[in-house]
Amino acid sequence: MESERFIRQVLRDVMSGRLTEDQAAERLLQEMGRGGVILKVDENCLALAPLLMARNYTTETVEPGLDDQGIKRQIRSRVFITRNGQHFNDPKDLERFDYGLVWVRSRADDRTLARSIERTLMRSRFNSNQHQVVEV
């Protein structure tokens, strides 16, 4: 019901001229697809997956036991969330394997981390610049 209310408000704002079509589309994408990114969560951050899903992100987990090269092949076109960012932050790999990186360095509790990751994702706009590294 909350999403329906949001969509109706965006439509009213467009019809009244308070929002342009582009602004409305951006708001709808952020609400419905959370910026159009798919998150791939490393096995060292598994507790974050359900918390990010609850925030309406499309979330997948890495297949357990893969080496770094196997993970890089699996995270194509995704934003990868890991505590082992040092293995995935090479700009050449980011482009070659087409992924973005959220490097979790904080030792905050999982709920706090999920909120921090959400804020970081919204600020960094991975949907328009996939090949970047951000730290939380």
Overview of this structure, please?
- The structure is a single chain.
- This protein is of the alpha/beta class.
- 46% of the residues lie in helices and 14% in strands.
- Strands 2-1-3-4-5 form a five-stranded parallel beta sheet.
- The protein is elongated.
- The chain starts with a helix and ends with a strand.
Can you lay out the helices and strands and say which pair or pack?
Layout lengths: L1 H15 L4 H13 L4 E4 L6 H6 L4 E4 L6 H7 L4 E4 L8 H6 L3 E4 L6 H15 L8 E3 L1
Parallel strand pairs: 1-2, 1-3, 3-4, 4-5
Helix pairs in contact: 1-2
Features of the shown structure:
single chain; alpha/beta; five-stranded parallel β-sheet; about 45% helix
Q: Summary?
A:
With 136 residues, the protein is of the alpha/beta class. The chain has six helices and five strands.
Give the assembly state of these chains: single chain
Estimate the global geometry from the Cα principal axes.
Answer: elongated
User: Could you report the average pLDDT, rounded to the nearest whole number?
Assistant: 90
Structural class of the helices, strands and pairings?
Answer: alpha/beta
Secondary-structure element order, N to C: HHEHEHEHEHE
Roughly what fraction of the amino acids lie in strands?
5-15%
* Cα separation of the termini: 32 Å
Helix content: 40-55%
User: Main beta sheet, described?
Assistant: 5 strands, parallel
